[in-house]
Design goal:
This protein is of the alpha/beta class. Helix content is 22%, strand content 22%.
Length: 509
């Protein structure tokens, strides 16, 4: 009866405790200035927007298959135009990094977002699987160029054969496949790697979690008159390690992708995404906010697949065009959640470190043109210097200075071994001894391939498939793709050696 009354009277909805079904989000006195975010697909786009809008409290961001800040262009006149722009953003055929930089600078100048100078010390981790046919390589290349304009520490992984998915070793889903929850096991621990690029070397992940996932009521963080209209679900989820009840912790926000909200995929993202085991041993609270779909017809209604809002949900919402700003409906709701977690009596802090050379340095990951370095954080150091050589004996040349305990070396030569040493620098610019060398070899370039992914109706609309209104077939090869439906997905590879459109239903090697 309460839900019916709420549906009939928005004034009743304003009284949160009357209609709440989940407990409120508790306060844990987190260090809000150590916040970080990550996401996949629309969640990757949302992670970029949240990171840039609130850069003053951020430590870094991880982006899997996302797009540049405000790529859908909040200055356009309508949602329809922004959605159309959004498709071009994901297609990757146009480099929108320059346009996004201009929009970012304009938004900062008007105080719609935090000052972009905050980005200078941030750590950015990017991932684009070479079988991703939805958010294609060019889109993520633009994200890399965008962030490289503002900061130094960018690691960009491009040589994994993953399709469009969140990668986790916590699932048995095959790597090359369209899984219901869009979580694939490609023998790659994305959560652990991105968290360590953001925060530096972490303690080994837990094998037995100290706590369980908790639900919380998301509605109290929304304008009561807009609950149900801004695509936020009633229930969110959070993982709080037992240690965070008495010690100061930081927060990492995970944004799921389209069709990955909990009401569709259950606990897949918040229990199998790979984050909690790292959070448990490293005093990191993991916040899993949730969306819900609004509308029912893809391409017509507001948000039928439950994506995060990176284009503007509806013309009927008064602040619709503010989706990339601090005042955006979803961004402001997430910030209120973070502010709640930051409340409460102060916990014990972290003890000071002894200044010296960095510890536990390793070259953790590589792609064809990038290498990721991490080491143990040390709060006695102001910055860290990174030195590189092509031989273990040197000479070593300084290639960068960073404030955090990681470094993404980029613009390297494929299939080449590089050697690194790291030193610490204190507040008086005293430099420590350099570490012993660590080395890593860059990978070969990914194979040339032209993947496309989508539901069968969209593939037909794009001219890559055709239909008899019951079944769907690939253009050129005439291979059967399944039912003509928004609910059936296909991966197609375009054969560019044939001088007319020719698509095969398969993955890049």
């Amino acid at each position: 009866m309460k839900r019916l009354a709420c549906a009939l009277s928005l004034s009743l909805c304003a009284v949160g405790p009357v209609w709440a079904t989940d407990p409120p989000l508790d306060a844990y006195a987190i260090d809000i200035n150590q916040t970080s975010v990550s996401g996949v697909s629309s969640g990757g786009a949302m992670a970029v927007q949240m990171h840039v809008a609130h850069s003053s409290i951020m430590r870094g961001v991880g982006v899997i298959a996302g797009v540049t800040y405000d790529c859908a262009d909040s200055g356009l006149a309508s949602v329809i135009l922004s959605k159309g722009q959004g498709f071009f953003c994901m297609d990757g055929s146009t480099d929108y990094s320059g346009a996004s930089i201009a929009r970012t600078d304009a938004a900062a100048a008007n105080s719609y977002i935090d000052n972009t100078q905050n980005l200078a010390g941030q750590n950015v981790w990017l991932f684009s699987g070479y079988n991703d046919g939805l958010v294609r390589r060019g889109a993520m290349d633009a994200v890399a160029k965008y962030y490289s304009h503002y900061l130094t520490n960018v690691f960009y992984k491009t040589n994994n054969h993953a399709p469009h998915a969140l990668l986790s070793n916590e699932t048995n889903n095959p790597c090359l496949g369209t899984n219901h929850d869009f979580i694939n096991n490609c023998s790659y621990d994305a959560a652990g790697l991105l968290l360590q690029h953001i925060y530096g070397r972490l303690d080994a992940p837990s094998t037995t979690l100290s706590a369980s996932i908790q639900k919380f009521d998301q509605r109290e963080f929304q304008d009561p008159s807009l609950v149900g209209r801004i695509s936020l679900a009633d229930t969110g989820f959070i993982y709080i390690p037992e240690a965070c009840k008495t010690a100061t912790c930081r927060v990492h926000v995970v944004f799921h992708g389209c069709l990955q909200y909990a009401n569709r995929v259950g606990n897949a993202v918040y229990e199998k995404g790979g984050y909690n085991k790292w959070a448990d041993t490293n005093k990191i609270i993991v916040l899993y906010p949730q969306t819900k779909p609004i509308g029912t017809v893809p391409g017509v209604d507001d948000n039928p697949t439950g994506c995060w809002d990176w284009w503007g949900l509806s013309e009927t919402l008064p602040r619709n065009r503010e989706f990339a700003r601090k005042t955006g409906y979803q961004i402001s709701a997430i910030r209120k959640m973070l502010d709640r977690l930051a409340q409460g009596p102060a916990h014990s802090g972290t003890s000071s470190n002894t200044f010296g050379k960095p510890g536990n340095v390793s070259a953790k990951d590589s792609s064809s043109r990038s290498i990721a370095l991490i080491w143990r954080p040390n709060n006695a150091a102001k910055t860290f210097n990174v030195y590189r050589s092509t031989t273990s004996s040197g000479p070593y040349t300084k290639i960068g200075t960073v404030s955090g305990a990681s470094f993404g070396d980029k613009n390297l030569t494929p299939n080449t071994t590089y050697y690194y040493k790291i030193s610490s620098v204190d507040a008086s610019n005293q430099e420590s001894a350099k570490t012993s060398p660590v080395h890593k070899k860059t990978m070969r370039e990914p194979p040339a391939c032209d993947p496309y992914f989508g539901d069968n109706k969209t593939l037909v609309a794009e001219g890559r498939a055709y239909t008899n209104l019951v079944a769907t077939f690939a253009v050129g090869s005439n291979k059967y793709l399944g039912a003509y439906s928004f609910d059936v997905f296909s991966e197609l590879i375009k054969d560019d050696t044939i001088p007319w459109p020719f698509y095969n239903p398969r993955y890049c090697p």
